[in-house]
């Protein structure tokens, strides 16, 4: 019975390894970037020469919407994201969901004039890595 207990402990200890990212870095050394906006989804409503206008989808939405993308148009905040013309392959009404390792962050404002000659100013966003080094990791390195 004692041997079975020891064998079980050894097996469990061998299976418990620190998790690492594909690059080999420990995932315990990072935390979610506090600058990340809550929603990982946008719905593009207009493609411009140097970017896109989109609705940032709400993370919680009323039950009469089928999903977050349906709630985008009615309840989402309008945002602008600059995109280099050579990389801009977005299309009108495109639904975009970022992978877990990326997020949207606020990056100033963008002003434009609508087709009805109204001045608008909206939040400008960009995509960054969602993970940032843990403050405790920096403190450990200083020791």
Structure write-up:
With 143 residues, this protein is an alpha+beta fold. It has helices spanning 2-15, 68-75, 135-142, and strands at residues 30-32, 41-48, 51-56, 77-82, 95-97, 102-113, 119-129, 131-133. The chain is built from three helices and eight strands; from the N terminus they run αβββαβββββα. The chain has a six-stranded mixed sheet with strand order 5-2-3-4-7-6. It has a two-stranded antiparallel ribbon with strand order 1-8. β6 (102-113) and β7 (119-129) form a beta hairpin. The longest helix is centred in the N-terminal third of the chain and has 14 residues, at 2-15. It is globular and about 50 Å long. The termini are far apart. Mean pLDDT is 80; it is low at 4-20.
Count of separate DSSP helical elements: 3
Order of helices and strands: HEEEHEEEEEH
Distance between the termini: 45 Å
Q: What percent of the residues sit in helical stretches (DSSP H or I)?
A: 10-25%
Adjacency order of strands in the biggest sheet: 5-2-3-4-7-6
* Class based on secondary structure composition and strand pairing: alpha+beta
Largest beta-sheet characterization: 6 strands, mixed
Tell me, briefly, the overall form. Answer: globular
Share of residues in strands: 35-45%
Poorly predicted ranges (pLDDT <50, ≥5 residues)?
A: 4-20
